[in-house]
Amino acid sequence: MVETVIKENANTSRRDRLLNLLRIFISLLLLAFIVIKNYKDFSEIYSAIAGISALLICLALITHLFMLWLESILWDILLRGLDVKINRAYLFQAMMVAYFYNNLLPSNIGGDFFRIYDLAKNRGAPVAKCASAVFMQRVFGLITITVFFTATSFSIYRMLKNYIIVIAVFLGIAFVLFTLLAKPSLFKIDKLFLKFAKIRRFWPKIQGFSDAVLSYRNRVPRLLLGLVINICCQMLFTVMFYLVSISLGLDISFMTLAFMVPVIFVLIGIPISIGGLGVRENVIVFLLLSFGVANEKAVAFSLIVLFVHIFNAALGGMVYLFRNIFYRSKGFI
After folding, report:
1. pLDDT, tens only, 2-36
2. Could you give the C-alpha distances from 213 to 82, 140, 218, 233, 301, in angstroms and in order?
3. In whole angstroms, how far apart are CA 48 and each of 59, 295, 296?
4. What CA–CA distance (Å, rounded) separates 263 from 280?
5. Which three-class secondary structure state does DSSP give residue 161?
6. H/E element holding 139?
7. Lowest CB count within 10 Å: 85, 210, 283, 298, which one?
């Protein structure tokens, strides 16, 4: 029995290493694609970046950092809704370190798992409640993305043309799936999963989703406040995009950028690269080109956004070092 467990753990570890190497390869391949494809336009791209306003880029960095701070406030609201009280400064530190994990490490552990682990090990918080708060924060993110996607799609429907029909169908399907997952008993989905052996193994994950959502059923005011804060976070991310676009002198509306943000969030959420590295840049270039932005400025835009992410992720790495140097912290590394 022990030998079987050890063998299974070794196989899992080997698979994880292979997946991490594959993510690194895909990220590098996608970045190389941008470089090779735009090699001849490098001088124009360099000129576009060299001509940007340093003040606007600093404001973009601060806006993105402020968004991370708001996310830590949202996290605090969700934790307090489950009677878990953690110092807000500590939560912001943990959020910064989690952002570092999400963006700069080729790991499948992820920043969310770090946040749960960190509060449980360093603050003695209940794991189940920490997991519910983090999970609910992700649910808010999905709801906000859907709201932004819907609002911006209909506001720029002339540019989207027939795609608006596809978007409407997608949103309808997403709403139905969310309802079924949040309350599986509504249409007897729980009995369906338990009846068939081949899909029964997925039931614990669906039950976990439902339990996390239902744990906040008597905390509606906190949920509404959390949703408002999450919408503000999404708006700040769009503002960051807008500041970058102004610095490059792009002729693109705020609403168009607001449409791009949820699309990018959804695509970089697919775990095929390191923190969306490479995927994010290619998607940004593709979308900007679709909206009539010149190629060199679209690439410059994607590189500046990449710089913003790396800069704040590096700040998170510095926070991690600070925590381990000046007081004892049980982290991953």
Report:
1. 344 344 445 556 777 787 788 888 888 988 888 88
2. 12, 10, 11, 21, 37
3. 18, 11, 7
4. 10
5. coil
6. helix 127-155
7. 85
Segment of 240-244, 287-291, 324-328 carrying the highest mean pLDDT: 240-244
Number of domains in the chain: 1
User: What is the C-alpha to C-alpha distance for residues 105 and 316, in angstroms, rounded to an integer?
Assistant: 12
Buried b (16+ CB within 10 A) or exposed e, 129-161: bbbbbbbbbebbbbebbbbbbeebbeeeeebbe
Please classify residue 48 by burial: count the beta carbons closer than 10 Å to its beta carbon, then call 0-12 exposed, 13-18 middle and 19+ buried.
buried
What residues make up the domain containing 57?
A: 40-326
264 within 8 A of 284, measured Cβ to Cβ: yes
Residue 27 within a domain: no
HSE, side-chain direction, 13 A CA sphere, residue 86: 32
Residue 207 lies in a domain: yes
Q: Angle at Cα 215 formed by Cα 197 and Cα 80, nearest 5°?
A: 145
| pLDDT of 185 | 53
Mention every residue, 6+ apart, whose C-beta is less than 8 A from residue 327: none
Cα separation, 15 vs 225, whole angstroms: 41
Nearest to 305 by CA among 284, 326, 331: 284
* DSSP states of 100-131: HHHHH---SSHHHHHHHHHHHHHH---HHHHH
Residue 278 to residue 158: CA distance in whole angstroms: 29
Pair 260, 241: CB distance under 8 Å: yes
pTM for this prediction: 0.78
Handedness of CA 13, 18, 22, 28 (dihedral sign): positive
Angle (CA) 184 188 192, round 5°:
95
